[in-house]
Amino acid sequence: MVRAPLSPAEAPVPYLTARHGEVQERPSVVYVRQGTTVVGIGYADESEEDRDARGVLWERVSENPGGAPRYRYAHPERQAAAMDDLRCQVLFTEADWTEKGVLFLLRDIRGDEQTPAGWPEGAVTLHPPLSLEGAAWSVLACGHLAEGWVAVRVADPDPEYGYSGTLYQPSSAGPVPVPEGKAATVTYQHSLVGWLVASAQAAVLRGCTVVDLAAELSAAGHAELAKRVAAAYPEVPV
Asked: Which pLDDT does position 65 carry in this prediction?
């Protein structure tokens, strides 16, 4: 992996970052029935807190905000809070809006053979939006973005597009995770959402405009951060 210009310790710890001491519980997963028909899954000891306002089942993960950060992982509840309200994933302040839309950062996949035509229009992301300051710290300290990133203004984001998590299927022994064991992203309208234990909320981005992050930082009065971003990434394509 490409090294970011700064170490994570030199930047604010992102709001949604998981912490040491935050433990994922593994309650028993059982069938949910409507009458005699199996319609999905739930927990054997399920409570109201296990599902969000839309009825989607979520991972149970404890909270320990004082623990050391685990930068590669997001806490499910904090990720969903930032995405649902379109708040900055780093600072948990209001995300930055202009007449072109709210600010997102995406790994730049333009030029890849499998990238859909017109990307980032219609892109699906698990990464909530950002304030300008949060975006600057992200590109300076996130190794994932150091491989190539693009700043996008999104006029019509849909933060309730879907969910990512562990998908289950029926078996003679009860619900079991799908054999691949990888995270699956399912739209909220799809029937499979009832078979998902969610770990993240997914947004679809519509009305996308690629923008110059350093220029926007400078115009907003963040001159020092603008200089650092421009110096670290002098040839980011727009």
From this structure: 87
The residues of the chain scoring below 70 in pLDDT are: 1, 181, 237
Instruction: Give the integer Cα–Cα distance in Å for 139 and 41.
Output: 39
Domain limits of the chain? 8-232
Nearest to 168 by CA among 25, 31, 26, 24: 31
- What confidence score (pLDDT) does residue 180 get? 73
Distance of alpha carbon 175 from alpha carbon 162, whole angstroms:
21
Tell me the backbone φ, ψ of residue 97, rounded to 5 degrees. -115, 145
Tokens coding 73: 């992982």
- The pTM of this model reads 0.94
d(CA 183, CA 110) in angstroms, rounded, equals 24
Q: Is 116 exposed, middle or buried (0-12, 13-18, 19+ CB in 10 A)?
A: exposed
